[in-house]
């Protein structure tokens, strides 16, 4: 629903206006997006059909891969198509839909990464109670909470976006619709909305990041009481999680947890966490996780033999 606006469409300026660079953008991000979809689909299928990946950690990884695929899909296809278009027009309704999807699946990633940290904490620090605390019903409830929390967050974002009146320029100096670039085009004082954005998205990213880093410090500290083999396995898993957390949260904090100031690197930082991180996550979780690699080999070997 459009309120007090005369603008019915926006023009996305994209990452570059240079024709040669646009072709490079098309090729590079097509490869990235296809890699994201294929990589995350492989993880989803492997976890779904493998008998050895039934633990809560892989239950959450299943949903993280699904969320990553959707998160990348909310921006990457548009960027790829626009790289070959002469005039990158996006309607008002499409723009609002993109804002909603971007924050829905971005917030979903945040929740799942927190739950994965909780799972590792319980597994390492409370091993005798692990099967009771992280039973299947609890994991399902946590995922439902994640969907509800993500929906509420993205609804808040879209309500803020729908309150913005647009009555002048419609050029968005970005490759996707988000609140920050839209605020620059609104014909109203956006100071309070900027504050709400920082307290909403910025606070979620920053507080979640701090909680996750502290939790992993606690986990790593507790490993001193484990055997050498146990430490090695736990360190491998936790290191993968920490890498993903840093790659996901640092760019997010840079974009959302700051005053309304524009920096030249904003577009590339957004590209990194909306397209780059979903591409890297399956690589990190497969290359550093022997169980996932072995399950993939067994699953696809069986599929090949059956054919």
Automatic annotation (TrEMBL):
- Note the CDD domains from the entry: 7tmA_OR4A-like
Top-level taxon: Eukaryota
According to the UniProt entry, its GO molecular function terms are: G protein-coupled receptor activity; olfactory receptor activity
Q: Give the UniProt subcellular location, in the record's own words.
A: Cell membrane; Membrane
Q: Does the keyword Ribosomal protein apply?
A: no
**What are the UniProt keywords, alphabetically?**
Cell membrane, G-protein coupled receptor, Membrane, Olfaction, Receptor, Sensory transduction, Transducer, Transmembrane, Transmembrane helix
Give the GO terms filed under biological process for this record: G protein-coupled receptor signaling pathway; sensory perception of smell
Please report the stretch or stretches of sequence annotated as the G-protein coupled receptors family 1 profile domain: 39-285
A single GO CC term for this protein reads: membrane
Give the residue spans that cross the bilayer: 24-45, 57-80, 100-118, 138-162, 191-219, 240-257, 269-287
tRNA-binding recorded as keyword? no
Looking up SUPFAM superfamilies in the UniProt record yields: Family A G protein-coupled receptor-like
Q: Which InterPro entries match?
A: GPCR_Rhodpsn (IPR000276), GPCR_Rhodpsn_7TM (IPR017452), Olfact_rcpt (IPR000725), Olfactory_Receptors (IPR050427)
> What family is this?
Belongs to the G-protein coupled receptor 1 family.
For this entry, the protein name equals Olfactory receptor
Q: Tell me what organism the protein belongs to.
A: Mus musculus
List the taxonomic lineage. Answer: Eukaryota, Metazoa, Chordata, Craniata, Vertebrata
């Amino acid at each position: 629903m459009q309120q007090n606006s005369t603008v019915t469409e926006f023009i996305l300026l994209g990452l570059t206006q240079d024709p040669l660079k646009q072709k490079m953008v098309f090729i590079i991000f097509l490869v990235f997006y296809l890699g994201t979809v294929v990589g995350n689909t492989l993880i989803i299928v492997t976890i779904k059909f493998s008998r050895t990946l039934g633990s809560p950690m892989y239950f959450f990884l299943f949903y993280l891969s699904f969320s990553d695929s959707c998160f990348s899909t909310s921006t990457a296809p548009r960027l790829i198509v626009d790289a070959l278009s002469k005039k990158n027009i996006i309607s008002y309704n499409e723009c609002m839909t993109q804002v909603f999807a971007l924050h829905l699946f971005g917030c979903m990633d945040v929740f799942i990464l927190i739950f994965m940290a909780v799972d590792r904490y319980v597994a390492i620090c409370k091993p005798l109670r692990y099967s009771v605390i992280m039973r299947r019903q609890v994991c399902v409830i946590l995922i439902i909470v994640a969907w509800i929390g993500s929906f509420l967050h993205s609804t808040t974002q879209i309500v803020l976006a729908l309150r913005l009146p647009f009555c002048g320029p419609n050029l968005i100096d970005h490759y996707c619709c988000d609140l920050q670039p839209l605020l620059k085009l609104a014909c109203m004082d956006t100071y309070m909305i900027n504050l709400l954005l920082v307290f909403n998205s910025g606070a979620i990213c920053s507080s979640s990041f701090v909680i996750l880093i502290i939790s992993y410090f606690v986990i790593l500290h507790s490993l001193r009481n484990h055997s050498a083999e146990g430490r090695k396995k736990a360190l491998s898993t936790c290191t993968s999680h920490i890498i993903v957390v840093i790659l996901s949260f640092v760019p997010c904090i840079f974009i959302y947890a700051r005053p309304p100031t524009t920096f030249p690197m904003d577009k590339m930082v957004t590209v990194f966490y909306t397209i780059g991180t979903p591409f890297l996550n399956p690589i990190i979780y497969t290359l550093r996780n022997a169980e996932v690699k072995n399950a993939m080999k067994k699953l696809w070997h069986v599929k090949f033999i059956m054919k």
